[in-house]
Amino acid sequence: MNPLSDFHAQGVPLPHIRRIAADRPLHWLRAGWRDVKANPLPSLAYGLLFALGGDLIILALLQSPHLLSVSISGFFLVAPLLAAGLYELSRRTEAGEKILFIDSLKCFRRNGQSLAFFGLILALIMLVWERFSAVAFALIDATSAPMASAYLNEILFDGQHLAFTATWFLLGGVLALFVYALSVVAVPFMLDRDADVATAMMTSLRATASL
Fold this sequence. Notes:
211 residues; 10 helices; mainly alpha
């Protein structure tokens, strides 16, 4: 399967987008809790790995506050792909299976080409965000702050860069919204239906637009 395939040219119809009730997310939270109770160790393992990963990023980049802020915000951009194992846990729990942590990682072997290409797209978006932030912080000489705490105080609390801070958060929010629209159902869709990356992203965009 070619992840760049033209689904229109192949005559593959895009899935129908269903409308959901406003309280549906509460149902998803309850279903997620049932998944945690059904597979507690794999679920806690993912939580521990993400927490340790965040701590390691902070510790490694305390002396590079610019990279620290970009890494934290960039984590949210690539998080949809990192959560693929959790999607697999839920998918197989719904099928009545009880799986181990290592079994959930096998999702990357199923439809791996599309998942890899989607990961590349997210990585490129993160790279663009990092380069934009590097230039922006260099223009106000914020990278001279030696520690993250001093850096945050310089950028957020001293009142000298309010316009920059507002613009940075605004553009970051727009980029995050775009990534959300691109990925909100893309990864579980690729896992569940073995779809190509173009179909998955278009379906995700259409689902977001229908809200």
